[in-house]
Amino acid sequence: MTPDEVNYLTNKLYTRFKNIPGVDREFIYKCAQAIAGLNDPEVDAKIKQLALFL
Q1: The whole model's pTM is what?
Q2: Around Cβ 6, how many Cβ atoms within 10 Å?
C-alpha cells in the first residue's frame, strides 16, 4: 500500500473506532503501516476491499 492508502485506511478506521478507549489514531496508523510492510498484494487487496465497507 502507498502512504496515501495507509492514511486513507487509518482515517476510515479511526472514524469508525475512535470511541474505543486506548484506540487512537496513532495506534491505528501503526497497525496499518505494519500491514503495508508485509508487501503482500493479496493482503493489500483485501484490506482495500475492507476499507470500502467502513
Answers
A1: 0.85
A2: 20
Q: How far apart are CA 19 and CA 40, in angstroms?
A: 30
Whose CA is closest to 50, among 5, 20, 19?
A: 5
Cell numbers representing residue 29 in the block: 496508523
Query: ∠ at Cα 24 (47, 11), nearest 5°?
Result: 45
Residue 23 C-alpha cell reads as 484506540
First-residue to last-residue Cα distance in the chain:
18
At residue 20, the 3 state secondary structure works out as coil
Q: Is 32 exposed, middle or buried (0-12, 13-18, 19+ CB in 10 A)?
A: buried
* pLDDT at residue 26, as a whole number: 96
